[in-house]
Write a structure and sequence with these properties.
Number of strands: 4
Number of helices: 14
Radius of gyration: 30 Å
Order of helices and strands: HHHHHHHHHHHHEEEHEH
Largest sheet: 4 strands, mixed
Strand order of the largest sheet: 1-2-3-4
Strand content: 5-15%
Length: 387
């Protein structure tokens, strides 16, 4: 059976057509009204700053998500894209001014919060997560921006805007930058600010592209040379923002691959002759390296040679391995006993896991029999009582 190409095209257009479901005039008015930074928006921004800062301070993902949902920062950013797409210079200036004021207030408030906060995090994972943006953050911002402007343009608005606010995460990077300022930490400040710039630029770009695609009404009578100059400026800004994120993404992929290789190598070489690897640490020192901690007898030359050969088979060079040996001064009998204890402990843990799985399977079987006993067979006639 051959596919009817015209039928496929008609079917695709039927499902993918968006022009019948949008109202660009109403969308433009809504976006413009969200740009204004007065009254309630000022207070909402202040509240969201405090909420996001508290969430970052206590490593609470749920609190951070709440701050993303109520933050009004998305309004001026989508307004920038609308202004660029419709050639509205006055709107562009207004949106940029309000966004700048919001950013400065957010930085000031979050810096003050972290200066006054009595909590001192030893492992600020939520803060660290916003200091190393990659190309994946670019993709999130780009498709989040496309979703945001499309949702704003629908005649019947849904809940996609909330998802965009969570995915693009505008407020947490600013609060993280404030944390960097409060403790004079350039890694946190510049890394988080770069993530915010990525989100801002690519949400604006996505809005610009969708505004053009949806054919929003544009301001006419502009100098073509000015329009061309503006496009060149936008392209330059995009390149400046994207290139570092590509480099960061490549580094992240390499780090991930190295960690996987190290983990596989360690699992394969837990027992090295008469030594035992009890821990390891991956770090960066002029390249990726792994510090391996062993206990037992010192490794002989032949054992080290085989150890490094196994590492090389996993893509880990010998100069990337730092061996830390801790001799226990054990006799042969003590060493053999330690090895047997390790195996016995492992076997006992596996046996316990298997017993737990057996108990779970027995409960599932009991529930299955109970369900089967409660289900009425449709082929068996139901005889009324008394017959």
């Amino acid at each position: 059976m051959q596919w009817d190409k015209d039928y496929l095209k008609r079917t695709f257009r039927y499902y993918a057509n968006i022009y019948d479901h949008i109202d660009t005039d109403d969308a433009a008015q809504r976006i413009k009204s969200a740009i204004w930074f007065r009254g309630p928006n000022v207070w909402i921004l202040a509240f969201s700053i405090v909420i996001a800062s508290v969430g970052l301070n206590v490593n609470s993902t749920a609190v951070i998500i709440g701050a993303m949902l109520i933050s009004p920062l998305m309004g001026p950013i989508i307004g920038l894209g609308l202004a660029l797409g419709t050639n509205d210079v006055d709107l562009l200036k207004l949106a940029f001014k309000n966004l700048l004021v919001m950013v400065l207030i957010s930085l000031a408030a979050s810096t003050l919060f972290f200066l006054l906060s009595p909590l001192n995090l030893t492992n600020p994972t939520e803060l660290e997560a916003r200091t190393s943006p990659t190309i994946y953050d670019v993709l999130i911002a780009l498709f989040g921006g496309l979703t945001g402007i499309l949702e704003n343009s629908r005649k019947e608005r849904g809940t996609a805007i909330a998802g965009v606010a969570i995915a693009t995460a505008l407020m947490p990077p600013l609060c993280t930058a404030g944390y960097g300022l409060s403790c004079l930490n350039g890694h946190f400040f510049f890394g988080a600010l770069y993530l915010f710039i990525i989100n801002t630029v690519f949400i604006t770009l996505a809005t610009f592209v969708m505004v053009k695609y949806l054919r929003f009404k544009t301001v006419t009578g502009l100098d073509p040379a000015l329009v061309s100059k503006r496009r060149s400026l936008i392209s330059t800004i995009i390149l400046i923002v994207v290139i570092p994120s590509f480099i960061s993404a490549i580094g992240m992929v390499r780090d991930n691959n190295f960690e996987r290789s190290v983990d596989a190598f360690i699992q394969e070489n837990k027992l090295v002759s008469r030594s035992y690897i009890y821990d390891y640490r991956i770090y960066s020192d002029h390249g990726r390296k792994v510090e391996v901690f062993l206990t037992g007898e010192p490794m002989s030359y032949e054992t080290q040679t085989a150890f490094f050969a196994s590492a090389l088979a996993h893509g880990i060079r010998s100069d990337q391995i730092v061996i830390k040996e801790h001799s226990l001064g054990m006799t042969d009998a003590e060493m053999n006993q330690m090895v047997r204890d390790i195996y016995d402990r492992t076997e006992a843990e596996l046996a316990e896991k298997e017993a737990q799985l057996d108990r779970i399977q027995q409960r599932l079987d009991s529930l299955s029999r109970l369900v089967e006993s409660l289900v009425v067979d449709p082929d068996v006639p139901i005889v009324p009582a008394g017959e």
